[in-house]
Amino acid sequence: MQDSLHRYTEGFSRGMKQKTALLRALAHGPSILLLDEPTAGLDVTSARIVRKLVQRLKEEGGTVIYSTHHLAEAEQVCDRIIIVHNGTIRADGKPEELLQLTNTHSLEEAYVSLTSEVARSRQEDSIKTSKFALLWRRLFTKQHTYEVNEDE
Known about the structure:
Layout: H1 14-26, E1 32-36, H2 44-59, E2 63-67, H3 71-77, E3 81-85, E4 88-93, H4 95-102, H5 107-114, H6 123-126, H7 131-140
Parallel strand pairs: 1-2
Antiparallel strand pairs: 3-4
Helix pairs in contact: 4-5
């Protein structure tokens, strides 16, 4: 990593870009650090280093906001979990409190229990598909049955 500090990140692997971004975030010694999927694209060893770093920052009195879809990872590094689903907070507490609340054995099971209803509809689902889009899909996909309204 030391050899790469003065290079532009163009051409770096995803993992190397992730490491570089983390180093840049830590360079000024922030008291609050926001990490969004910090281990995405990292190998197992590098991901472990990131988790240890988060633990160390926490022990030193820093605040780390750790956003991730990897709930087993969150269970390892976070002392407070906020589960957000469809734009609303579904649960907020210590990992063990969420497990007790949902009567489950892992945060993944707790998440599923708290968010089991159907996902909200997307705006795209309510927009009528254009004739051009239907024809395009017909040409370039295996689906050949599309309704086309000639009045459009």
